[in-house]
Amino acid sequence: MVRAPASPTPRLPAPNEHDRLHAPENSRASAWRSRRTRSMQIGRVQYLSVWN
Questions:
Q1: In this predicted model, what pLDDT tens digit does every residue of 9-43 receive, in sequence order?
Q2: Would the CA dihedral through 28, 41, 45, 14 be positive or negative?
Q3: Are 45 and 51 a contacting pair, CB within 8 Å?
Q4: DSSP 3-state of 4
Q5: Where are the domains of the chain?
Q6: Please, which domain of life does this record's source organism belong to (predicted)?
């Protein structure tokens, strides 16, 4: 992921951006996906690549 360079002021959008990216997933897919992902943390990239 692309991270903003270190700045004297803390980045507030950072936490909000995290919620914005995961909000849609938590609403639907994460319900059943979380069960698989928990046991497939290692193969997460391969698992997501199949659906993408």
A1: 545 555 555 555 555 555 556 665 565 555 555 56
A2: positive
A3: no
A4: coil
A5: 18-51
A6: Bacteria
Give ∠ CA 30-35-45 in degrees, rounded to 5. Answer: 70
List, in order, residues 6 or more apart from 40 with CB less than 8 Å away: 47
Tokens 């698989």 locate to 36
Q: Which amino acid is at 50?
A: V
- The beta strand positions in 1-52, using DSSP E, are none
The H-or-E segment that residue 50 falls in is helix 44-51
CA distance 46 to 52: 10
